[in-house]
Amino acid sequence: MAAIKKQSLVDQVYERLRADIIHLRMPLGSKVNVNELQEVLGVSCTPIREAINRLQQEGLITYENNVGAHVLTLTAQDVEEIQLLATTLHCAAARLAMERGDRYAMGQQLRALLAKLEQARTPQEQVKVIHHLIEVFYLHCGNRRLDRSMLAIQGQQLLLRNLYAQEGMDMEQIFSDFSQVCQGVEAGDTEQVCAAIRTNAQRMEHCLTCALQPSQRTT
Fold this sequence. Notes:
Elements: H1 2-22, H2 34-41, H3 45-57, E1 61-64, E2 68-71, H4 76-100, H5 103-119, H6 123-141, H7 144-167, H8 171-187, H9 190-212
């Protein structure tokens, strides 16, 4: 029972730190101070260090000897690399879902999420719905390894989407992109689906790389 309780505590610390990083409450490049976190979270250093190790594996925290742990920093190249990998995985999931999944069910789910996206009022709500729109294809693709590959970079991509929201994402264009995705699913047009996914990714990449070009984003 003690081991289960300890793991539960690690999970809680991990989820709290992960959310703070993804939602930019912990600034990019900021130092992760274990002693300060002990005071804020009211836990010992052990679950904090274990949570930091997990976040390091996700690429959300970096660690250097004699320097310590920091929230990741981002360059334009980082954005390009994350987006290239994410888009490749999204399109692979979409292709498999279109081949193996229930297109009618996917269309219904996408339509319902588009309605939620139209009603979303805060950037946080919008980012959450966009994430669920992409997630539909992973739910229907029937490939667990592809799903796990996406989970490995999910935190980084959610962070990028929140940064994109902070920079001022164009919701009219984003809604148009995902309307094209939905129409492609309903028409059985896999190429339209993938083209719309790529277009959406390129919009975000262009905005963020322009924002990051003058200097490396660390704050």
